[in-house]
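for the record, two folds in this file. i put them one after another cuz i was lazy. first one right below, seq on top, structure tokens after. the second one comes after a little note so u can tell where it starts
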Amino acid sequence: MEKIQIKPIVFIFLFFLLNSCAVNVQQSDKRKGPSNIASIEEDPSILNKVSDIPIPSNSLVDKDKTFVIGSGEEWIGRLSLINNDKKNNIFDFFLKNMSNYSYKKKNIKENNVSTLIYENNKKVIFIKLSELKIEKTFIEITATPVN
């Protein structure tokens, strides 16, 4: 039986061939927030639909992760925002301002990902805050009707 010898040049050729066929796959880390930077912009049309909760100034809308149905006090869905302020400041902003919109605090959890839950007679608001980068915060606000 004959031994088959593969020369080093064949290994090099196979390495480059396989390497050129490789596809880069990036897994998204949901804690880091948006995946498509082009979809993040100041969008008054979406922000004007939501009038019954406070919105931190200079917030940009992540259109890929935002889904809002209705408007005014009747909106439901998810509003995803990016803000250039620190997570702690955004957390304090909601703590101070949600009661001005007739919401009562139901639950608060301050951690790496902070959660605030508020309720009025029409809906429940879930606010999730996570740090994107130093002094940037990903804000996810979900509004659901009260049963």
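(here's the note) second protein begins now
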Amino acid sequence: MRVVYMGTPDFAVKPLEALINNDYDVVGVFTQPDKPVGRKQILTPPPVKQVAIEKGLKVFQYDKIRVEGVEDLKELKPDLLITCAFGQILSKE
């Protein structure tokens, strides 16, 4: 089963790890773009992106997935799409 996962904060890391640890075929991870954090405004990747990269998963980041990411999502041909604290609205497409 081809799974696409969408999530961003710490809260969304555990479900992603559960999918990976239970041998689901996670074909792509969509997360919010990196953001400046702290007083020095250091560009920081979201926790889900960090885990996805560590696990060797393909990561996608768009300001608006329904505008920019629809084609990439279609190309992955997922059987299942899971969202957990993703923070964007998905279009019908």
